[in-house]
Amino acid sequence: MSIRENFSDADMDQWLNDNRVTEIECLVPDLTGVARGKILPRAKFTQDRGMRIPEAVLGMTVTGNYPTENAAYDRAISNTDRDMILRADPGSITTVPWAIDPTAQVIHDCYFADGTLVDFAPRSVLRRVLKLYADKGWKPVVGPELEFYLTEKNIDPDLPLRAPVGRSGRAETTRQVYSIDAVNEFDPLFEDIYDYCALMNLDVDTLIHETGAGQMGLNFQHGDAMALADNVFYFKRTLREAALKHHMYATFMAKPMAGEPGSAMHVHQSVSDAATGSNIFTLADGSPSPQFRHYIGGLQRYTPSAMAILAPYVNSYRRIVRHTAAPINVQWGMDNRTVGFRIPISGVAQRRVENRIIGADANPYLAMAVTLACGYLGLVDQLEPTPMVTGSAYDHFYELPQGLPEALQLLQREDRLREVLGERFIDVYAAIKELEHQEFMTVISPWEREHLLLHV
């Protein structure tokens, strides 16, 4: 369900008038998940105006640079710096609760001049995968769980992050997993977050304290993949703004602190019959269906090749380490948090798979698209999973790439993911990530100075 389900352009205009909106933030999620776009006065905002931004906005690294002398990138993105035409998704319009004046924000889709969707835009990639499901008469159902850290403000990137000070005047120094009192240390912040989410119609659910110092987790109600990706995109903006108001940072880095667990975006997923609404993972007698096994088989077969999207930065792979509350392989098991694909205990109608590999730093649209793509390939190719793990999957071998260069090689070689996600998307994405890795390799770390400077 979208924030405002079945909203038309006319409904959107009426909502803007009813809420006396004076300014509109026109947002486009880029490949990193950053909100790009323009801010317009209300009088200038109309769908037929055809607002435009350069196509290359979707082809930047997280540092704002562009690949050069990359043949695949040059074939995918015009070298004339042409424009994309933006069109608002009326169902995504909502308020900006931290703004001083009445302000709205609305997510836009990107189109070429001929009226076709820009195929390497994150929302377009997810739409492409969802259409594959729709063509089969299926509808995916997802439920994200998003982990994040609250930290002290840190204006010097050379200094390590530290846990923030709560109401008691002290920072956490021990593990406080599931502690209610530890969450209550930040009550003023979380009260603002819940108020903001209510004003924005974001359907958030349970808040918990995770394992790390200052690490929290938030569950979203299950539903439509595009709507949930929008919700995660909006929530990340909202949390950062609320944290700044309370003189803290909120970060979705996969591994922001040495010695602390990383942050994930676990995604629960099932598939419904679009006509009946029944879960195709369950047979009439309540037993698991062959399609349930095939879906798991697809996740196992293709997730290693998709890791560059699920773990998109050099920092992401610091999280994928044995015995650190993150999976290291593609094993699956029943109510087993050491595996990549956990089957939660549930009623037969709610039978689902939880992908625990995805990092909190992943673009939510691309993360939803690629995990659903892996499952889709398992369904259509009728792939069988390996035997279920009953003990700790940490005792098994690594089956996931352990760095971004290896992950990019696997992604670029996997033709089936190219077919499902789109040739041009893979080319643009891989070029950007290769450049990001090159940029990272120009930086000398404190570890290198400490251990290599005088010893080698």
From TrEMBL:
Domain of life of the native organism: Bacteria
Its ancestry begins with: Bacteria, Pseudomonadati, Pseudomonadota, Betaproteobacteria, Burkholderiales
GO MF annotations, alphabetized: ATP binding; glutamine synthetase activity
Gene Ontology biological process: glutamine biosynthetic process; polyamine catabolic process
- What name appears for this protein in its UniProt entry? Glutamine synthetase
Q: Where is the GS catalytic domain?
A: 122-456
Q: Which UniProt keywords apply?
A: ATP-binding, Ligase, Magnesium, Nucleotide-binding
The record's annotation in PROSITE patterns points to: GLNA_ATP, GS_CATALYTIC
* Listed PANTHER family: GAMMA-GLUTAMYLPUTRESCINE SYNTHETASE, GS CATALYTIC DOMAIN-CONTAINING PROTEIN
Q: Which Pfam families match?
A: Gln-synt_C
Q: Has UniProt tagged this entry with the keyword Ligase?
A: yes
The record's InterPro entries line, in alphabetical order, gives: Gln_synt_N_sf (IPR036651), Gln_synth/guanido_kin_cat_dom (IPR014746), Gln_synth_cat_dom (IPR008146), Gln_synth_gly_rich_site (IPR027303)
Q: Which family does it belong to?
A: Belongs to the glutamine synthetase family.
The record's SMART domains line, in alphabetical order, gives:
Gln-synt_C
Q: Which cofactor does it need?
A: Mg(2+)
Asked if Ligase is a keyword of the record, the answer is: yes
